[in-house]
């Protein structure tokens, strides 16, 4: 039922300015990147690929978005937010975003930094007088705020409670975390190794509350979510939306390929590290704010220089493979820098990924553990990025699309899997949907006769094998043939 339901998609294509004043939004629509045919082709290719990947991996549902600067290029729901009630996933579906929460905690702390209430190299104990975790490396550097943000503090990964394995996922309260802290020890000397730590980022939230004099969740709502118009983002899982907008979470697949429904959880004391919930639409606003701030060089919630500092490398592990900023994951993808954060919580996997130089972002939220949300977001930028760059070239003449080619577009099935026939440039393209690299899997097709196309080679544009489409008496396409072997059009 779940796999069948993945073919039912709730679609909202939003071509608008995100978080802009009205006049600027209207100007954005006039020159919308999303209206460019090449961008539309690339987005369609990515969406078809993601839908298939979710289906074959048994992911009940997901919501995805791609944003460029102040424009939301696409926001879409795929599959079921709640298969039990047959509620389709949508752009406004709410998911736990788990560790993406760390970005909001980090920004909150940097607001305190800008106000002169702390320094990054302050020992944590200067701001939390109850921080009494045993330092078994007393001759090394103390645990600092910078160490918390870069996961180089030497602290253990978690507070000493079994919240990730307890069948009901009971997270500790703030008081319980403090109570157990004295029984915990540093794992490594500070500033020695990268050690991802939910405990460290929980302490970041505690420092924000201490220095601001405001309850942590209320602080984030007042100083980040409210100003950015993120009304569908919550600092804890919104139980009031369970059975409605809040997606029903599922476990990882077992050996039989099935998933179990997961209980609704609250991160409680671990909230600054893993407790938030949001939608792809709201996270697109969050992305656009960052692009806007970096471009303006001014101040909007943060100074542009502060955000830029957060998104550069502050930590390089001794293995030279792991790099981190101030709260942000920071890494290189060929010659591009990408920043953001992923999330994994009971019932949900998520990814928030930005490429600051190109002002391109991808957001993937799912209601299944083990879903490859980070991989899907990466492929969005790889596939759509070149099309967005080309669309920004105002001297380039828009592609003239032959509407008659639309009849061939669709999903084709054979025993070997599925492929998609897509609009591409001024013609068509074929893409096998099982591919792990959709950008490289796209094969251009050039029309050479009635219902007949040839593959165009990538190296020198030479013609390759022939694709012949079969049609019924009413002119509807039914199959495509290569070398006398066929695939049936199923959608």
C-alpha geometry? elongated
What is the total tally of β strands?
A: 22
The Cα radius of gyration reads 24 Å
Indicate the percent of residues in helices: 25-40%
Contiguous low-pLDDT stretches (5 residues minimum) are 1-30
- Structural class by secondary-structure content: alpha+beta
The helix tally amounts to 13
Strand content: 15-25%
What is the level 1 CATH name of the domain at 403-489? Mainly Beta
Query: Could you name the CATH topology of the domain at 403-489?
Result: Lipocalin
CATH-defined architecture of the domain at 403-489: Beta Barrel
Q: What can be said about the biggest beta sheet?
A: 8 strands, antiparallel
- What is the residue-averaged pLDDT? 93
End-to-end distance:
18 Å
Indicate the topology.
Blueprint: H1 2-5, E1 9-12, H2 22-30, H3 37-56, E2 61-68, E3 71-82, E4 87-88, E5 95-98, H4 101-114, H5 145-150, H6 174-181, H7 198-212, H8 216-225, H9 271-274, E6 276-278, H10 280-296, E7 299-300, E8 302-303, H11 304-310, E9 315-316, E10 323-324, E11 329-333, E12 336-345, E13 348-355, E14 360-366, H12 373-391, E15 410-414, E16 417-424, E17 427-432, H13 438-441, E18 443-449, E19 452-456, E20 463-471, E21 477-482, E22 485-489
Antiparallel strand pairs: 1-3, 2-3, 2-14, 3-4, 5-6, 7-8, 9-10, 11-12, 12-13, 13-14, 15-16, 15-22, 16-17, 17-18, 18-19, 19-20, 20-21, 21-22
Helix pairs in contact: 3-12, 4-7, 4-8, 10-11
């Amino acid at each position: 039922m779940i796999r069948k339901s993945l073919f039912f998609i709730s679609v909202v294509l939003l071509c608008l300015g995100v978080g802009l004043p009205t006049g600027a939004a209207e100007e954005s629509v006039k020159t919308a990147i999303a209206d460019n045919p090449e961008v539309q082709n690339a987005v369609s290719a990515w969406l078809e690929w993601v839908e298939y990947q979710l289906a074959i991996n048994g992911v009940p549902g997901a919501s995805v978005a791609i944003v460029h600067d102040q424009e939301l290029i696409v926001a879409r729901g795929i599959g079921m937010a709640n298969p039990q009630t047959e509620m389709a996933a949508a752009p406004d579906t709410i998911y736990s975003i788990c560790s993406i929460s760390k970005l909001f905690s980090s920004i909150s702390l940097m607001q305190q930094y800008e106000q002169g209430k702390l320094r990054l190299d302050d020992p944590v104990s200067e701001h939390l007088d109850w921080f009494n975790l045993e330092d078994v490396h007393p001759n090394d550097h103390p645990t600092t705020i910078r160490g918390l943000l870069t996961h180089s503090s030497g602290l253990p990964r978690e507070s000493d409670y079994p919240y990730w394995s307890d069948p009901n996922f009971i997270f500790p309260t703030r008081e319980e975390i403090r109570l157990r802290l004295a029984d915990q020890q540093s794992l490594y000397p500070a500033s020695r190794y990268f050690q991802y730590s939910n405990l460290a980022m929980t302490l970041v939230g505690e420092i924000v509350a201490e220095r601001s004099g405001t309850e942590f969740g209320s602080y984030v709502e007042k100083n980040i979510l409210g100003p950015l118009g993120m009304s569908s983002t919550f600092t804890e899982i919104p139980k009031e939306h369970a059975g409605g907008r809040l997606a029903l979470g599922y476990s990882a697949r077992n050996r039989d390929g099935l998933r179990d429904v997961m209980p609704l959880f609250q991160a409680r004391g671990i909230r600054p590290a893993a407790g938030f919930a949001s939608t792809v639409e709201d996270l697109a606003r969050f992305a656009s704010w960052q692009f806007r701030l970096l471009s303006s060089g001014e101040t909007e919630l943060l100074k542009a220089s502060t955000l830029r500092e957060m998104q550069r490398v502050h930590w390089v592990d001794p293995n030279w493979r792991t790099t981190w900023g101030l709260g942000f994951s920071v890494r290189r993808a060929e010659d591009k820098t990408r920043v953001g954060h992923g999330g994994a919580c009971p019932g949900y996997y998520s990814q928030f990924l930005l490429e600051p130089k190109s002002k391109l972002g991808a957001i993937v939220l799912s209601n299944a553990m083990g879903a490859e949300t980070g991989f899907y977001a990466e492929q969005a930028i790889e596939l759509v990025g070149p099309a967005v760059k080309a669309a920004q070239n105002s001297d380039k003449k828009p592609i003239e699309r032959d509407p008659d080619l639309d009849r061939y577009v669709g999903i084709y099935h054979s025993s070997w899997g599925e492929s998609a026939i897509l609009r591409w440039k001024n013609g068509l393209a074929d893409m096998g949907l099982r591919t792990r690299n959709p950008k490289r899997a796209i094969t251009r097709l050039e029309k050479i006769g009635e219902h007949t196309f040839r593959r165009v080679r990538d190296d020198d544009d030479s013609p390759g094998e022939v694709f012949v489409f079969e049609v019924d008496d009413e002119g509807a396409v039914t199959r495509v043939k290569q070398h006398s072997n066929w695939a049936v059009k199923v959608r």
